[in-house]
Design a protein that fits this description.
With about 25 residues, this protein is mainly alpha-helical. The protein is about 90% helix and about 0% strand. It is built from 1 helix and no strands.
Length: about 25
């Protein structure tokens, strides 16, 4: 659970950033 709690937010944040970048393009 600890590992999941630490890695999930990072992946989610990267996913959101990628979507925002695609919207700009």
């Amino acid at each position: 659970m600890y590992n999941f709690g630490m890695t999930y937010p990072l992946k989610f944040r990267q996913h959101v950033l990628a979507i925002k970048e695609k919207e700009k393009l």
